[in-house]
Amino acid sequence: MSAAAPVVLRELRAGRSAPFGPGAVRSAIDKQRVGAGVVDVNGLHGDEQADTRHHGGEQKALHHYAAEHYALWRAWLPAQAARFVPGAFGENLVTIGMTEDRVCVGDVYRLGGTTLQVSQGRQPCWKLSRRFGVPDMARRVQDSGLTGWYYRVLEPGALAAGDRFVLRERPHPDWTLARLQGVLYHDCLNREALAAIAALAALSDGWRALASQRLDSGVVEDWSRRLATPA
Q1: For the chain, how many structural domains are there in total?
Q2: How much is the pTM?
């Protein structure tokens, strides 16, 4: 990815909170295409988050997922192939040409009338398992590294399908999202890498704190509540 080769926003999506499976659980993962919209520091106007503890907010204002990943999921899980279409992961931004191995922590992009900064990757949760009808889908997404990522909004404004992503700054060129997630989910107690992650100024506070906690404790946090679908 370079400033000379911008990527086009193929789809902009927003969703409302609605019942999600059995019980009283709600989710806004079902996001529909909108032609244009306005974003502020909390995200896209008209887009909701049912679980505001774990989704949304200034560090996770917009979610981006690479459309080219869907072909991989259809090949890996052919029985669910019809479900793997843009928007299925609850993303706001859909593109081809930006993936976790090409996007870095802290990248600053101009998109339409907005300026966005990559803040962290997505931490998959059990709602993806329910969404796709695959009991271990959240774990599969985490293990694959095809998680998507979040932005903070540095400059609010309008954006629309067809706008181009133009890279303006890359403060941490050595830290692609793929490398970051490789440490957090696979090489989990690599102390040198964790120290470097904790020092990444553009990374979200929560993920920097996560790296610091592992350094202090020497223990990987329990992922079961996030990944396992409730009974």
Answers
A1: 1
A2: 0.93
